[in-house]
Design a protein that fits this description.
Mean pLDDT: 79
Number of helices: 9
Shape: globular
Distance between the termini: 20 Å
Order of helices and strands: HHHHHHHHH
Oligomer: single chain
Largest sheet: none
Low-confidence stretches: 125-135
Strand content: under 5%
Length: about 250
């Protein structure tokens, strides 16, 4: 868990800090990386997270409902964050200070929730001993890291337009702490028995639905005119292939 904390924290900090060292980023390459991250996140959600949830003794019908609610909940969070979690680099309309606060609130909630999934390997194994195997959390950790890098860069790019470098770094640190805090909090809460097993399924279902929303949004926005772009197609296949290899062969 300590290693996960370090990786999550410094991924956000380093990716966001790139704004100060590479202010004139190449939009083309940024979008390609977004497509790669979105494809990998979608793949591990389909291959790893959802099958494990349906194989963990939770009510299947309810689990489907939780995933759907999580999908819709992410739509609300993106209204607050202006879609920065999938690469949008702009503030919502209105006062700048209010826009920054709204963006931070939406992103922090999203990042906190996704961090809870990183304790899922241990928790699933403890709550359902009948499961034949518990996947390594490294596949999921890589997916979250790939997703958080572009989000941190986009967040820093947005904030630095309206706030000082000092405040940009402070808010970046707060965002960097969100997922690690979610990971630690969920582990402590569920291992202490404060919440029952069913709530584990509710939480993980909601986060899985959010992952589906983010990854599919990246797909749709990467080709708004529905034209075949070979480079993006190849990047998507590469990311899906990496997810398959990490899930079944490593």
């Amino acid at each position: 868990m300590v290693l996960n904390f370090i990786l999550l924290f410094f991924t956000v900090l380093l990716a966001g800090s790139l704004v100060f060292f590479a202010p004139s980023w190449k939009d083309k390459y940024f979008k390609l990386f977004l497509v790669f991250a979105g494809s990998y996140l979608f793949s591990i959600t389909i291959l790893h997270i959802i099958p494990e949830l349906f194989d963990s003794g939770f009510d299947s019908a309810k689990m489907g409902l939780y995933i759907l609610i999580g999908f819709l909940l992410q739509q609300i969070l993106e209204f607050l964050s202006s879609g920065i979690e999938h690469g949008h680099i702009h503030l919502p309309h209105g006062p700048k200070s209010k826009g920054v606060l709204t963006v931070m609130l939406g992103l922090f909630i999203h990042a906190f929730l996704e961090g809870t999934l990183l304790s899922h390997g241990t928790l699933m194994g403890e709550t359902d001993a009948h499961i034949g195997h518990v996947h390594s959390e490294n596949t999921l950790l890589l997916g979250i890291i790939l997703h958080k890098g572009p989000a941190a860069f986009a967040l820093a790019a947005v904030i630095s337009q309206v706030l000082s470098k000092r405040w940009t770094l402070i808010l970046l640190v707060i965002f960097a702490l969100a997922s690690p805090l979610g990971m630690i909090s969920s582990s402590l809460i569920f291992q202490s028995g404060i919440l029952e097993k069913e709530w584990i399924g509710v939480l993980y279902g909601l986060v899985s639905g959010g992952f589906l929303h983010i990854s599919t949004t990246i797909f749709f926005e990467s080709s708004p005119h529905h034209k075949l772009q070979l480079n993006k197609l190849l990047v998507s296949f590469l990311a899906a292939g990496l997810a398959i290899i990490s899930e079944f062969l490593i």
